[in-house]
Automatic annotation (TrEMBL):
Taxonomic placement: Bacteria, Bacillati, Actinomycetota, Actinomycetes, Micrococcales
Domain Core-binding (CB) positions: 60-154
GO biological process: DNA integration; DNA recombination
Keywords, in A-Z order: DNA integration, DNA recombination, DNA-binding
Protein name: Site-specific recombinase XerD
Length: 504
């Protein structure tokens, strides 16, 4: 792993913060081939997949114990994104300790952290005038990450006691049962802060001004420079109409996108288990209108950047990529000559697949940059920030982030499902309603499956939010936008009547 460490140390500024980096098996130009091979073999022996996080101290030091925690078996069973979030949370607390205690600039070793240090950190994150005032959900995740680290450190005899104050609470049998000790620092979650969402008209205004480059009057802005506006519009329309997470949608392959068929208003798009949270396969429904936008993007904008990259010879000079012999083949050949099924590739590996077509090599990834290379999630975050800035300048007061579009999909879908079910059950008795639910399913569970929630409890948060809305707001939630209609499956609209079938 020396090569990755050297690269991280070289690229790191001279900060006072602990930094999170990611492992890479990619060959770096000019690197010693023998060192590169040894590094790959070490990563394989430690069962560290591509993109696994590790932490460096402010001076570039590699704390063996901290990083041993990040590579333990329980942690490796979690997704890359979860592990990265835990590493970020841990690095944040370690950085805070590095600032020292009041009246002293002496950094605090994490092994010597005290309850008082946690109290000061709590105050800074949640109540200090100079602090970030994070949401309850963010804070509780941070507490869990660092608390689990110190529980592990106690068990490993690295520290004598944890700096966390705890209390006893009963854990349900579903979660293992029995009394457990939990940190007292957690805050009660606030449903209102859980979900930021837009009404149909708000979304259209945010998209048209921020992504399409229109003015507040609905006219094209001549000052707007957005050569990939078609790609970006297709991306946000897909997100708001399917409910995919950014990390799921950003790593779609061109071959993942279904073709439009007659008789349906939507098509199923299947997500690989290696790219979803919880590592479970699921499918989402995509409206034909959005599929048309994606097809237009592929035919024009995407085709142009691919052709330009091929003319420059960019794809032929790429190293450490997987090769797919044709768009219809489900296997790829890895950098070392190994054969892999496309479905087994991680999210990062999917971004390193080249497909051999009649015109030459091109990335398998759906979303490409102006240079013809796969766009990664951070690039989409930048695009959203730019869209928000344009909306602020236009005076709309509307801002949006990727997860807000997922929340918007959930709220709009649940509202439509409930309207359909209420129409059917309006004149039914309680017994008939119970029988109906047993036969046709529950709107909440249908939405849970589309969103990929492990527990229906998470999905119920949307139900509570919806119940708190005024009727006028609920009507504005959907507007008259037909693109937010429910899917059609086998010729029947998927409302309450066909919910049971679509749960499979």
């Amino acid at each position: 792993m020396d090569g990755a460490l050297d690269q991280a140390r070289a690229e790191a500024p001279a900060p006072s913060s602990w930094r999170v980096w990611s492992t890479s098996r990619g060959y770096r130009r000019g690197a010693d081939p023998a060192s590169w091979i040894a590094e790959r073999e070490w990563l394989d022996s430690q069962m560290l997949e591509e993109g696994s996080p590790f932490i460096l101290s402010p001076d570039g030091g590699f704390d063996v114990d901290v990083n041993r925690y990040l590579s333990r078996a329980v942690m490796l069973s979690r997704s890359i994104n979860t592990r990265k979030a835990y590493a970020d949370d841990l690095a944040r607390f370690l950085t805070f300790l590095g600032l020292g205690r009041p009246g002293s600039r002496e950094p605090i070793d994490w092994r010597e952290a005290t309850v008082e240090d946690r109290r000061r950190f709590n105050f800074w994150r949640n109540r200090s005038p100079e602090g970030p005032h994070v949401s309850a959900r963010t804070w509780n995740r941070e507490v869990t990450a660092v608390f689990q680290f110190y529980e592990w450190a106690v068990n490993e005899d690295l520290v004598t006691e944890s700096p966390f104050e705890t209390k006893k609470t009963w854990r349900s049998h579903r979660a293992g049962g029995g009394w457990v000790r939990v940190p007292t620092e957690t805050r009660a979650d606030d449903d209102a802060s859980f979900a930021t969402w837009l009404t149909a008209s708000e979304y259209r205004q945010w998209r048209d001004i921020g992504i399409r480059g229109f003015t507040a009057r609905g006219l094209p802005d001549t000052a707007f420079r957005g050569p990939q506006a078609g790609r970006n519009v297709a991306f946000v329309d897909l997100m708001v109409s399917s409910g995919m997470r950014l990390t799921e949608q950003a790593v779609l392959l061109k071959s993942d996108v279904p073709s439009r068929s007659g008789g349906n208003s939507h098509e199923r798009l299947r997500l690989s288990a290696r790219t979803t949270k919880g590592s479970k396969r699921r499918h989402v429904y995509v409206p034909h209108s959005v599929l048309g936008e994606i097809e237009a993007y592929c035919e024009f904008e995407r085709a142009q950047v691919v052709e330009d990259a091929q003319m420059r010879g960019d794809y032929g000079s790429l190293e450490d990529w997987f090769l797919q012999s044709s768009p219809t083949v489900a296997t790829v050949v890895g950098p070392s000559g190994e054969k892999r099924k496309l479905a087994t590739l991680t999210a990062r590996e999917r971004m390193r697949v080249l497909v051999r077509t009649e015109a030459g090599l091109e990335p398998a990834a759906l979303w490409l940059s102006e240079r013809g290379l796969p766009l990664r999630p951070p690039s989409w975050q930048t695009i959203f920030r730019g869209a928000n800035e344009r909306n602020v300048k236009a005076g709309t007061g509307i801002t949006c982030h990727p997860h807000a579009l997922r929340h918007t999909y959930a709220m709009a879908t649940l509202e439509k499902l409930q309207r359909g079910q209420n129409d059917v059950l309006a004149d039914k008795s309680e017994r008939q309603r119970m029988h109906y639910a047993q036969v046709f399913g529950d709107p909440i569970n249908w939405l849970r499956l589309r969103l990929g929630h492990r527990s229906v409890t998470t999905t119920h948060l949307y139900l509570r939010l919806l119940g708190d809305l005024e009727m006028e707001t609920r009507l504005r939630l959907l507007g008259d936008d037909q693109e937010w209609s429910l899917p059609v499956d086998d010729g029947n609209q998927i409302t309450d009547h066909s919910m049971a079938r679509t749960q499979l």
